């Protein structure tokens, strides 16, 4: 996370910490928590109380649940994020998807649209969907030699990356289709956003 974010994807972890800190609300759902590292670094005065974790890997759910169970009321769901989520419409204050869309199967960002549609459905009006993902193609991206090598390597392995068709233009368009305001930027090879319902 430290090496590849800094040298391959060229996105500062401080930006990802800030994205979490500034946008998480009392009732929050994280799509693809991994080991829960960024959630574990939320400041003491975070408004977060109820934390839903959604992941198709039960090990990620268990590691994150154990890591954060003293701090938040945690609910876990083991499933593919492209399938309908078992949460009520307009029930959440915030949803995040950090460094996971590039691992979701699909030929381009439009195949991953059901995840954004579910986030929009689950959020209250004014709720925020924030996140970031490594993108695989597009003139705006700063793809250096290490990033090129890792993109090709990870996309050639099973169950690692699937993002060679993911572009900033499509990501922005998918977000704009489902949210009323979208703050989107490209940093290195990474698309970073905060979208408001
Ligand atoms: C690289 S980790 C990101 C972890 C964390 N969000 C972070 O920023 O450090 C990707 C996570 O997405 C999950 N994931 C990948 N594809 C998924 C899918 N289709 N549905 C749900 N979770 C998925 C993985 O199991 C893993 O927990």
UniProtKB/TrEMBL annotation:
Residues 29-130 form the Methyltransferase type domain. One of its GO terms (molecular function) is S-adenosylmethionine-dependent methyltransferase activity. InterPro entries: Methyltransf_11, SAM-dependent_MTases_sf. This is Methyltransferase type 11 domain-containing protein. The lineage of its organism: Bacteria, Bacillati, Actinomycetota, Actinomycetes, Streptosporangiales.
């Amino acid at each position: 996370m430290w090496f590849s974010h800094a040298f391959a994807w060229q996105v500062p972890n401080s930006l990802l910490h800030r994205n979490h800190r500034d946008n998480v609300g009392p009732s929050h759902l994280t799509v693809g928590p991994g080991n829960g590292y960024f959630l574990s670094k939320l400041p003491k005065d975070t408004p977060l109380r109820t934390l839903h974790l959604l992941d198709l890997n039960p090990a990620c759910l268990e590691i994150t649940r154990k890591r954060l169970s003293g701090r938040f009321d945690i609910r876990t769901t083991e499933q593919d994020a492209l399938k309908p989520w078992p949460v009520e419409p307009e029930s959440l204050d915030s949803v995040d998807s950090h460094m996971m869309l590039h691992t979701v199967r699909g030929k381009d960002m439009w195949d991953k649209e059901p995840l954004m549609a579910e986030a929009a459905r689950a959020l209250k009006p004014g709720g925020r969907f924030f996140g970031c993902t490594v993108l695989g193609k597009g003139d705006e991206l700063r793809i250096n030699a290490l990033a090129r090598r890792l993109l090709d390597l990870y996309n050639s392995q099973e169950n690692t990356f699937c993002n060679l068709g993911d572009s900033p233009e499509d990501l922005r368009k998918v977000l704009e289709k489902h949210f009323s305001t979208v703050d989107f930027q490209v940093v290195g090879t990474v698309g970073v956003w905060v979208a408001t319902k």
